[in-house]
Each structure stands twice: as structure tokens, then as C-alpha cells.
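Support reply, case 0932

Customer input (verbatim):
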Amino acid sequence: MYPDHTPQRAVEVHQPTPIPPSVVHSAPVVPVQPGTVPAVASVVLPDGRVVTGYAIDAVHPEPVTAKPAVSHVAVNVALAGVGFLAVCGGLLLLTSFIAALTAFIGQLIILAAVIFGGWIAVQVLSGSGHKGGTTVNIRRAVIKRNHFHG
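Our regenerated output:
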């Protein structure tokens, strides 16, 4: 442990002096002792300094479980399945859009036919009023033409 040229010294164990707790708040402080008091170890260094401390058990981390290897074939199959579902969903939306557009155009055609048919029905069924054209009464015209104005 020590080089050959340094003299061997005896290891002295010192017990630390506890520090009384300071009262910060008015609640009574009840000291709680742990189940076991950890051992205090002091080591005298070759230059005469004394190092005192508690022995701490080394913390061993949890062993990391190895992740299972993922097959490239499984990844490709999963990606192909997702792609297939995306294409099917897109085709479903496309067919729904086409069906809705066809129904909308059909309703526009029916609406135009109803409006135009209504306009024709109004024109045919309205017998009185202005008919919207030039009407010539031939008998009156002839009479007026042969009538002598003086």
C-alpha cells in the first residue's frame, strides 16, 4: 500500500462530533435515528492528514435488457400494410367525392329543368296580358289602308 521509503503509520479511527440542529421554525424537532448507524472510517494519509467519512456501498445500476432485434422483413411488411391502408382510404375518399359530385350535378340539372319548365308553363298558361311580340290584325290594316282620309 505504501511505498518502501515511507514509514508505516497506524490507522486511527475518529468518531465525529455531532452538530446540534439549529431551530428555524417553531415546530418541535424530533430527531429520528436510522435503523442502523453507518460506520465512520478515518484514514491517515502519508502526509499526516486525516480523511474521515462514511462507507458507502457502491450503487450498481439495473442491468439493461437487450432489445430484441427487429427483422427487416417485419418492418417492410408493416410499412406495406400502412401504405396499403393509406391507399384504400384515399380511394374510398375519392369514390365518395365522385359520388357526391355526381349527385350535386344531377341536382343542378333537375333544378334547371324545374325552373325552365316552370317558366314555359307560365308562358303557356297565361292567356291574358302582353304576349311579348308584334301582333297584326290583318282586317283592320286592310280597312285602314282602304279608308280614305281627307
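We compared this against your earlier run and they match. Two observations from our side: The longest strand covers residues 40-44. The two ends are 159 Å apart (CA to CA). Please reopen the case if you see a mismatch on your end.
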